[in-house]
Predict the structure.
Amino acid sequence: MIKLNDEIIVTTEKLTSSGEAIARLGEEKLVVFIKNALCNEKLKIKIIHINKRFLKGEIIEIIEPSKYRIKPFCNIYNACGSCNFQMCGYDYQIEQKNIILNELFKDITNNIKPIIKSPKTANWRHKVQFPVRETKVSKRVIIGYFKENSHDITDVKFCPLQPKIINEITEFIRKNYIYGCYNEKNKKGLLKNILFRISNSTNDILLTFVLNIKEEDFKSKINNNFTGFSDKLKSEFKNIKGIFVNFNNENTNKILGDVTLKISGEDFIEESLKDKKYKIGSTSFFQVNPESAVNLFDIVKENIKENSTILDAYGGVGAIGIYVSDKAKLITLVEENKNATLCAKENFKINNVKSYEILTGDAKEQFLKFKNENKRFDYVILDPPRSGCDLKSGGLDIISSLARNIIYVSCNPMTLKRDSEYLLENGFNIKSISGVDLFPHTFHIECVAVFERK
């Protein structure tokens, strides 16, 4: 019987959508998931987790490596763990992601299109969120990523996936920030997170500090200090166009609080995708990899017919809706976040979109109102979070009733499959599923699934 900490020799079979390799143990073919392993590798592993359905193992020794295994290009690859496909070349990553997609969806469709590569495999990450802590004794500032399955931070002084200037700014903050960092144990300390948004087309930056304090306390106690510090940052780095503070003094995993205050500079930076221009706020959602987002949005646009009515559900700053607006008779954008809809209004104007409406408020209530009014759209565009859509109670059940066609943009193939099965059972066929690599050197796969009503 297999026990915790047992050391076993295995041979891996395939990779999963979570980026782990699978091996099977014993006559029962018990599945063991192994991080940082590739297909067809003979490994010595230690069992680190056991439950009724599967095991997890960590590599002790690579006895026979895959011919595709290479040395990771990042010096802190093992300590950080954010880019779990660095141990193999980019072409092999894409090959494996194609296999994963086809394996996952083979029982519901065979129309899976090959994954489109990212134009950049380095310096592609244009939104970065770093937790911030400090050492116990020396109070040295640590800025980086949480290690896997922990809240210990790897101090990231150089990340090859983000623009070089972000590394330079974080180093400046390490050396010059003196106002205290958050401590998870006692819930005290000021600075919790730093957020960067950098434009791929202009290199302009918005910088946001997330603080463990209420807005009124900030204004009465430390506003002047932060204003002085932000002036130093802007003087040192001309690319920084705006600096903000966000207030989040709650003990949750949520990064941002509800209130953001501008300290200095501009409210927006501008991003361009082909001929479309977008104003993006400090906390606005926008695709992390803008050049690869063009490939993604092109697929959406190619699957829309001319002169169509389009519902951009959960439309954010209008990124996809504006990109496909050339084919729209009318675009209706629904978004709950007021700051996002303010950006969306500006974006529709600067792109000279003539026929659109923007509805701010509870999205589910708006979708139910459409249904009660018997309103229908030629296309509904969905771009939900990794958790996918709510299937009932005003979620996918209502949205699907409004659509003749659904174009579903997903960053999680597992929840896309779940939601696809719901749509197949409720009056739709899958026309195609297309993969786009927005996140090189990670296991993440972005998909565009096109559904048409039967």
Notes: DSSP finds eleven helices and 23 strands in the chain. The mean pLDDT is 93.
